[in-house]
Every structure is written in C-alpha cells, then in structure tokens.
Amino acid sequence: MRKLILEPGWDESHEWKICVYYEDTDAGGVVYYANYLKFMERARTEWLRSLGVSQHEMALQQARGFIVADLSMKYRAPAQLDDALTIQTTITQARQASLHFAQRVLRNQDVLAEGRIRVGCVEVGSFRPAPLPESLYQQIIQLQQRQ
Amino acid sequence: MRKLILEPGWDESHEWKICVYYEDTDAGGVVYYANYLKFMERARTEWLRSLGVSQHEMALQQARGFIVADLSMKYRAPAQLDDALTIQTTITQARQASLHFAQRVLRNQDVLAEGRIRVGCVEVGSFRPAPLPESLYQQIIQLQQRQ
Amino acid sequence: MRKLILEPGWDESHEWKICVYYEDTDAGGVVYYANYLKFMERARTEWLRSLGVSQHEMALQQARGFIVADLSMKYRAPAQLDDALTIQTTITQARQASLHFAQRVLRNQDVLAEGRIRVGCVEVGSFRPAPLPESLYQQIIQLQQRQ
Amino acid sequence: MRKLILEPGWDESHEWKICVYYEDTDAGGVVYYANYLKFMERARTEWLRSLGVSQHEMALQQARGFIVADLSMKYRAPAQLDDALTIQTTITQARQASLHFAQRVLRNQDVLAEGRIRVGCVEVGSFRPAPLPESLYQQIIQLQQRQ
Prior knowledge:
The structure is a homotetramer. Chain A contains three helices and five strands. Chain A has helices spanning 35-50, 55-62, 134-146, and strands spanning 14-19, 64-75, 84-94, 98-107, 110-123. In chain A, strands 1-3-4-5-2 form a five-stranded antiparallel β-sheet. The mean pLDDT of chain A is 93. The interface between A and C is medium-sized, with 27 and 27 residues.
C-alpha cells in the first residue's frame, strides 16, 4: 500500500515573522545556511506556544522534549541583512511519538527556503521515544480535522 | 578635568522584546553568555531602525558600517528557555565617528545582564574610522537634548 | 533510465576532528540540531583546504563561492558536551557547477548523524551559477577516479 | 590598600589554535563580535582540559559548573574568513569560587582582540556560588607560583 503524503496546506499554516540581523549572516553577504534551521525552530516553538504549550514547562512538568529525527531542506534564494521574513509552519503527519512538519521561509511572496522536518517526542534525560503529552496530541488531531 | 559619565537614563530608553529559544541556550540550561551580545545587537539595530536607518542600506548607499570597538558586560542572573526578555538601549555619548551605548537585559523587573558598548562608524571594506552619516548624527544629538 | 547513486565510500573519506563546546549545546543537554551543519561545513572547508583551496582566496581572486542548494540529514544519537567527534566527508557526484557530498558525524565508531549536501558554485555577488574553478574541478575528477 | 592587578604574563600563557569558518563571520565580511567570546571559551575549556578537567565530568560527578560573571573586551582589528588564530589564556587571579582570566586573540603577531573575564564556580542547577573542586584549585595555585 502506497503511503499517501499530502501536499502541505500553506493557506492554513501558522506564520511567524522574523528579521535578519548581522548574527544570521555570513561573509558571503547572506544568511548562513544553518541559520534557517534556527528560524524554523523558532517558528515551531511559536506554533506550539499558540497551542498553549511551553517546551520549558513540558520538560519540567512532564519530562518530555522534542528532538529532530531527520530533515530535508531546499534553498531557493538567499535572504539578506535586514530582510523581513515569514516562516510558515504546517503539520503534515501526527503520530503518537512524532510530528512531521513542512515549513517555508518567505520574503514577501518569494519562497527562499523550504524544509521537511520530523521531530520525535522523547523522555528528558534518556532521549528514549515517548508519547506526546495527551492533551497536545488531541489538539493536533483536532487541528488536522479542521483543515 | 574629570570626565563626566552620566548614568544612563533607563526611563527614556528604547525597548525591544525577544524570546529565548533553544538556539540561545547551552547545556548548563541557561542562555549562553555570548548570546546576550546577539540580543543587544538586535536591540541596537531596532533602535537604529526606529530612527529610520537600515544598516543594509547604509552600507550599500553610504558605504558606512558600525563595528564594536570595546564593551563590558555584567551577568547578574541567568535567562532560561522560553523567557520573555526586554532589551533596553540608551545612548550615553555620541561623537562624530562613534556611539557609546548602555544596554540592559531584563526579565520582568529583574536586570539579568547589563553592558556598555562603544561602536565605531567605519568605511565599508577598509574598516577605517568614518563620520556617522550626517542626518543620523543630527537625529541622535536632538534625541539627547530632549532627554 | 535509472540514475545510479553510489553508496559513499567511507573508507576513503576525508576526516576532520572537532570537539563539542558549550556553544554547540542547548538546554536539552545535547548538540543543537543546526550545529551539525556547522561541523559539516567546517569539514567541507578542510577538505577543500586539503586540495589547496582557500574559499577566501577563491572569492577574492576568482569571484567564485559555494552555496548550499539542498540537503538532507538523519540524526541517530545525540552528541554531548566535550565529545570528540569525527566528521567524514566524501564526494558522491561532481558536476561543472555543483558538488554532491555525503557526510557523517561519528563518536568513536558510532554514527551520530549523516547528511547529503548539494553545493552549487556561484559568482560572488550575483549568486548566479558558475563553473567550478577549472583546477579544482580537475583535482576532484582525478580524486574520484582513484577511488 | 591598593589592590595590585598584575599585567598578564603572555609568555607563559596557554595557547589554542582555531580557524575562522563561514559560521564565524557576518555580512560585514569579518568575524561577528560575539563569536570572539566563543573562541575564548573554547580556549578556557582547553586550558582546563590541559589540567585534566572535563567540564562535562565535573558537572556530572561534582555538580559544579562555571558561569561568566563579568567581562570586558577590546576589539583592535577584525579577523576574516580562513584566518588562523591563536587564543592565549592566562589566569590573573584565582579565588576559591572564582577565576579571573586575561585572554588575547592573535593572527600571527597581531593582537586582534583582548579580554578580561571573571568566571564563577557554581552549583549545577541552583547556580549558587560554590568552591572550585579542591584538586583543580590546588593545581591552579601551583601553576601561579611557578610563573
């Protein structure tokens, strides 16, 4: 049976705005390639926060954390100092112990970079796979049904 | 003649809010000490932007840039993941080719870190000292007289 | 016609050793996921240097630079503070204006992370695709024939 | 009684070599100012390692860590991509719960940056001041008497 991977629905995606500072750029005059991953994690964090979840509290109170399992990135055009960027984040698959995200980095209407990221939920300390906190999992399922 | 160094006036200072993400922290569980300098530069950039100045345009159009000449930092208490921080920025001295800033990093009313930074204006490429763009210099002088 | 993608030959790969410092870790107690891309770029830089190429000189003298076009990463196990890591780098495909790398991050014999990176050669400034400097291209072709 | 602050003795200082990679630079074409603090911490870590101390083990086995209390920096000339730098590290004062370092960043014989850093020893988790591990303290005292 072929696994159906839906194209991400960008219209419904979470959006987070950031600005490019000197710290983000390199001597090539553009944003350093690893720093897009920072932008994308900020956006995933804010997406979680929009669902009422603080990762700091989740670690302290539920001993759960997230860890990136794999990812792929396409870089289409470079971002520059002072650019105002929008990071779009959408869930493409939710499982009990992992989440699949699609994310894009845009400057106005131009897609500068896009990525697919699979994040696993783990026990703090041991890094063993662990189910997502139940209330978060339910929220995400409901979110997906609405889309 | 003793040189008069005025205590910075925090009431009038520029404020910029940031959030602490995983990228900012280290294995000690707190914000890595060098990253406060990133936060402070973001705030100086936004202070400049509030005066209508984009460093990217300033480099392209006027071949002027800023470079940090010296700084001092005091770290009072550590910031942690998910903290909402405010960066206060105020000018303590303005000269034709350099600016002295005092900056503080706060969580609510607590001062977590404070710094003094001297920034020189330089010619792009050669890094030779150069006067501030005249309109920026005039704006800063007027700003100081109002305080 | 199916495109043949050879498995990378790790035995012949370039190796570069690095150490994990506080700056590389995050509050989860392990290396932050974006920082593996820094390690891997350091290793690609040292691989180039082992061929006699300095990217700084290449930019100044030949107006050529490299830019990452796409990449994929698998994270297998986390690296921690003070870990001694080895980065293995091997070329899987060389074209006139792009290079495909396979890279691995190891602690002793354990593969902690692995990635595939496609790097394009571009004109400095315009970021338009440009052929690799001829002498570098010839060196890489010879390197591949020896493997 | 005036407090005697000795000029640091660079001849006896610990030396650590690093290379400037793209990740260290910014769109100004030079090393980003906060990154010198990373270089200097790498060097302090290697100085500790040269005394047989791993900070990771110190945290796990003795629940002690280091935290920067204050610092000052002077930036004299910018470092650039591919520069080979030497970081010199010397102790200027050792107390039971804190260490004062002087550090310099050199390219060949040129001092590009220099700093003074006061590091406090703290209890892991609480960040309360704590005495240095006794064997480390004794080693440092002996090191200073030899100079």
